[in-house]
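ok so i was messing around last nite and threw this chain in just to see what happens. nothing serious, just curious
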Amino acid sequence: MRNRTLRLKPDASKNVSVKVTLPDTLDHGAYTIVARVDTANAVVESDELNNEAASEGDVL
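result:
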C-alpha cells in the first residue's frame, strides 16, 4: 500500500477514500480493516488517540 501525505491546519480533518482489492483466494468470513496515521508520532497533537480507525465487514 502506498503512503499519502496530507497537510492539515490545526483542528482540521479530512476524509479520504482508498480503494482496496482483496485477493480471490481470501476465505469467507469476518474481517477488520484498520487505517492508521502518524504511526511514528512525528506530528505533535493534542489528542494522540484519534489516529486509528477500524471497520468490520464480511467477505462472502
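not much to say yet. The chain has a mean pLDDT of 88.
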